[in-house]
Structure formats: structure tokens, C-alpha cells
Fold:
Amino acid sequence: MKAIMLNDFYNLKSNLKSVIFTIVLLSIYPATRIMQKDFNSVLLVFMMFVISFLVNSYILNTCFYDDNSGFTKYLKAMPIKIKDYVAAKFYLLGASNFIVILSSSLIAYVKYQSVELTFFVCFLLSFLLAINLINLTFIMKMGYDKFSIYVTSIFIIGYLILFFASQKIGDDILNKIISSVNILYLLIIITFDIVLILILKNTSIKFFKERIE
Structure:
């Protein structure tokens, strides 16, 4: 499993220029708002969504590299257990999101000194993790090429919604939404993510075996 994760990190490293370019491109709008001293909590949520998508998309892209390099095709002939291969993908996705959730929540708290906003950011990113766990399961079943259009569509729709929301929704409206998320909801979504990883990992092993046979 360690070798598989190292291979994934190598693939991500080889795509580092593309990652940096995407981050710069998507940071233009938030940077403009910051320079205008118009940075509010809505924009913070918008930025957290973009960061989460970038992390998740590049983790999911490791499946694209594996499929197109022939690694997936010849996996059965390698001394690698299929269950370890699939598990490595889920653990990498989970670990990466844990880092994003922890760092984003810390930034939210330091910036606004608000426990409620911190809970909300953590809840939102944990919800996005659940979506990407489902995405990874479908990729294991169908292959990245067949499912990538769906992943891209989700981001475009979410990006546009949050883009316009960051201009139209004020802090007062967002604060009402934020205050509705308490620690109970946060614990529920975190527990849901953990259970989802365990269930979908086993389901994906079955799907992946069927796809490569």
C-alpha cells in the first residue's frame, strides 16, 4: 500500500505546474476582493470550496494516470493486492481532506475568532468529502474517463453558485446559516464520513475487480 501511495504522490508531483496554475487562476477573484478590503466570511467559504475541489480533483486524477498509463490494466499481474490498491486511494483521499479540514478550520477561527464559523467550515468540507468518496466509488466502477465529466460539472455548478453568492449574500444572511450548524451536526457528518469510507472502500474493491477482469 505504501508503494501505491508513493506512486500517487509522484504522479501529483509531475503535475505540479498545472496545480499551481489552477490555484493562481482561481485565486484572482478572491485576491481582488482582499485588495479592495472587501473580504467577508462568504468569500472565505468560497475559497474553502475552491481549495477542497483542487485537493480532491488532483487526488482523483491519480486514477486517470493509472488508467491511461496501463497500470490498472496490468495490476493483476503485479505483486499488489487489489484491495490494497483501492484502500490506498480512499486513505489518501481521507488523509488529504483531513489536512484541508483542519487547516481551513484553523484559518477560519484565527481570522474571525468565531467557533460557529469554524464549525460551519468544518461541516461544509466534511460534506464535500462525502461527495468525493462517492465520486471515487463511481470512478472505481466506471473508470475515470467515463466519470470525469460528472466531477467537473459538480465543481462548475458549485463554483458559480458560490461566486454569485459571495457578491449577493451578506454576512447577516450567512451568519444565520452558520449559526444553524452546531457541534451535533458536525459530529454526525464526521461520523458519516468515517462510516462511508469503510463501506465504500469495500464496495469499490468489488467494483474495481469487476472492471479490470
Observations:
- The chain has a mean pLDDT of 78.
